[in-house]
């Protein structure tokens, strides 16, 4: 009997009973996720948020394992070993392509982590060897699932949809690590609410409120944790650091920089091997180097991150063109080049999406309905946006009081 | 009213109501602790153990804050603002001097982190400015407390003894992050069990079992978490990597290495500024560099750490001289230079210490007794040792079966 | 220093530091609440729901204690010892008047438990002696607070409003005992969101989402726990038992019955002393007696409760007059006198109420707004109703299949 | 697919997947356990301890279910449906025979609850019908298991030994309800530590510390909860009430008393039907009746229990004959007939028992050892005794100070 048990703060135990999955855990592509935090810069706001994408990947795997046990009892699905392995492997590997401070990194580099996930699955030699040990189509089928090609609809939905093992794990894990209760929901009952018919996933009508609780927990995590102004400000700072570094590089100014990071900043033809060398230790080390750079902007920005002197977030309407111009002028006057020190950011709180992705309830009489038809609460969950400005605290609290006053008068809607 | 509240997974909320303490949190010396894990390499065993010394320092501070509230109600201690600030600052700053993978680092460098804590308190300019804002003796008094000079006996005991805010926080935090229940105890009741007389801390006799539970929780954390063979094996690996790097450096062989790390490996006259540049991102980055080094030993060891191919731990008696010699010979024959690949390690599970450090119970009739006089359970808590050998898994599972067999016959006591 | 500490599964510790409050706890009127469950018959659905109104009263007291500590720090309120005692005593004593299976009892007797609370406060000799030890107006002021006369607006709101210590405690306690996560919310942060101005309670604007979470938790507790069809069916059964007993008594038919219960069923001029003799042990004992009664209806109904053969709940629209008539005819034909065996019940899920009771948010610029103006989620929380029919399972699963089929065809909207 | 899921505060969900077990839950013999608290009078000390033997029985069943899933994976045991049903039914039904305030009741009546469990299993018609539906030997085999006849050694050990599903559930449940952490241990890991060979249960050697934690948790629950002096004092009070009632009955003095209780107090030839009518509502109702009795002793004692005016516990050595005589004389002088008001009680904290019941560790080399050979901690767990005196608080705090002083001088070892 093969059995590996990992202790986990969310699920108590994570059980591996298939050697294939355990071999996947021990690839370097998966182990690298130990060096990438699940919540990016959130640890600057919630000091507990140090949990990694590795832990989350294990948790998504374990959640899938429990979902499959339920579905096998409930409706005999999946009825086949390879299918089971596909579902488990997809859950374990879905986050492979994340880079350091992931979403920030993507926005600078203009490449989605999903594409890297697919490339790593297909091109990383060690990983590929393990996957090919099942059969030569296994890796491609996994990519197909992550791409949601429609060939494995139930697995696709369980791996990525509005009710997937990814979210089920991360909400509980993020809530535990940050210490908030906002992300909690009834996991076992939610799993039990699922059913599969004709290879599609449905939610039982009688579990309506369990799903409502889960979707509202997600809403609360967005407004209280994921889009916390201080976190978004930390993201902005990382982004501005990377942008400054890239600008210097592209201007031909030499800076100390880890090789893999340079390759990525230069932006073309990065190999999977190079990409996999990137993690948050590399980025933080670059910040260390840069904090002693000759470029005062780069040095100052990097030092701000390392010593947590973050930008001040100001929640307000979109600034007008003239407000924006004034603010940039003020920043320049106070010694803060506005391209790197004054940033606007619009954050979107996602809603419940009906089109093409709705959750379908199945009642006792074989009736189908979209969750939003039945739940008034869920219908309020429409996407909404928060406009925020970020700028150095020094601009608001300058020794030169009259300057600060003018900044205040521009950015704050009320005095 | 000054009030800063941080959300915490252990204590729910951490409250700052004194601007001095909040300023200390925001020094770069304290913020640096965000980049040093509380449990060193334990995350290689327990994937949740990513929590930082920063989080722990906040938790030790919060525990002290609650202890002081209790003691003020209980016996009017401390009755003075500066005294209170000393206690809180000592709790917050007690871990300042930790380096990356702390205990391993110390054993390589031969310098205790405590000494660095003292130096940072006295020499770091930014921190010193905040401390001096109280008065010019404040920093020195803090060092005196950490040194346990005996000038502030109650604070010294609360900061560092067998029943201190350091352990109270870390046991709960380590238990939560790893997901084990072993470290749990009745925090609020334990705090309530404390009393102060003539500036010394005592435990109320009626709280005997509460203290027993706390000390046994510590025992369980040692045997199940802190000295877990896989974790000790990870420490050994880090140590061997650093030793190899130092050997190369001292032999004059040039390797890529972050400057601050080089300074420390060279070992003399490291400044506080240089030391503070060291954290786990720097060390991990060095491992990245070294994994591509021309020195095959360094490259292999570093790669093992990054991809979690750890040494196999073997729990057994101390090997005899001849066993030891045979094992080294075998290692060499199999291509593993024994100085870096075969390591013995003795781990000590600490016991309850009576001499000079015992916990004194105070009964309702003003009678004093040492905890160990009253508790049979506590008397069993004497230090004990675990001998372990660490070597590459390949030596035990070689393709050359006869070689592996011989290794087995040397290291395992029974076939 | 006066200090009594009780261990509590919700708040960890409940602290008494004022001898007055401790004396109140030890009156027999408060101790009686140990024999009345907080959630009535919910334990028939959730086997953990055995927690008592005594535990909840302690919890409401403790919550008030923490609210007052916050408000004293936040805005210096309350600034006076008697005021503090009023708030704490009101929280502790607010549930004094509950009878066994409280809401059921009320609906049979037509007397609100609030009136009994007031009477007990004023008329119970032992309790009155303790209250009068403050001053002769103390008891009357407490009643005034519970009646919400408007003389102590802040205390009144903290004791009874949409955001009061009563709900804060019971939601957490009910969630813990039943084992559901639906009722959880951020207690410490919610307390911190409160502020008092001109003796009125406000919620800080920045705590919007914390209050949303709390109000949604309440919604989920209603739909998942408080109005669970099986629980409502248990209530209906208790009510029908009591109604049958009262009918027999009023028809002059003698049954075994505890004296205090007989007095209450007879309905007039019940003294406080008599009322206080009633608790759930008395009611359950009456059910024991009645289960052996000569009256077959009473005997059968009581036995159903004791052995948990509850009515089947059917969730459906309001039945038409003819459906209703058919159903009663069927019941009679099957041997179940419909007055006691077929019951309709409309349950109301409460919403957020604006008129006269809204929660007022206070922003940083002294702006006021009702919570519902700001939160779309909260605006969906309007009262809604669930119609349900309750009848013996035997009617649906009769040995006479054709009879059962006809019952099915009447009560189920779809075949 | 048969599936019933109950929500549980300890195990989250309790799953029934075999209709037989669900039918057993719904017998009146099992439902009666809803009216008997798991911890007897502990709720007088820990107000949360209202959980019932019904909840515990479900939890013991669920724990057994998980143990069997593990053992089936681990070593293919049990390999047969009837065997599985025996194990589950034995876990569910093991507490059937408990009476109200169980241990107190037993000591008054001189009949062990185990005997009643056996009788109910064999004689209760409804229960027997369900059990006989498996086969005519099923009920007898269950009794054989509970008697530990040795015919089903593994099941017997899992149901009743030093490491059984009974204790696993009750320790966690008692800890949760009372709000203490003392009873917590690693349930999933403990289950995983079990293995079966030749129909005997063993504990894997590598799980040593997990078992240590579990046994120490039990020790802490005894000293902190089960033998809490206030709880023992409440037991003494119940016992003295029942003794007084029995004495009156045996002297032919008529008192109001529920019929089933009278039958049991009279003591002979009580039928199973009569016994099953007894529960805590009946006993509490009797206390209500007795609190208004003409017998002033009975009335006073019963009223003390209902209003929680418990005896004061005094922890001290065994009193000498002369101390004892003086104390009884004093009690009489102060109006408290000593037979009912002054009680000595010796409570035994159980230890780890080796003889005939030891837990056997099984190492990787098929070596067996008793747990106590390997663990120093466990060897300290030898039975120990606590002597306590119980008497009315009024004797210690009399208005007549000189009387109180004399009582003090007798009972307290130090002034």
UniProtKB/TrEMBL annotation, chains A, B, C, D:
SMART domains: HDc. One of its GO terms (biological process) is dGTP catabolic process. Transmembrane segments: none annotated. Pfam families: HD (PF01966), HD_assoc_2 (PF19276). One of its GO terms (molecular function) is dGTPase activity. Gene3D superfamilies: Hypothetical protein af1432. InterPro entries: dGTPase-like, HD/PDEase_dom, HD_assoc_2, HD_domain. This is HD domain-containing protein. It comes from Alicyclobacillus acidoterrestris (strain ATCC 49025 / DSM 3922 / CIP 106132 / NCIMB 13137 / GD3B).
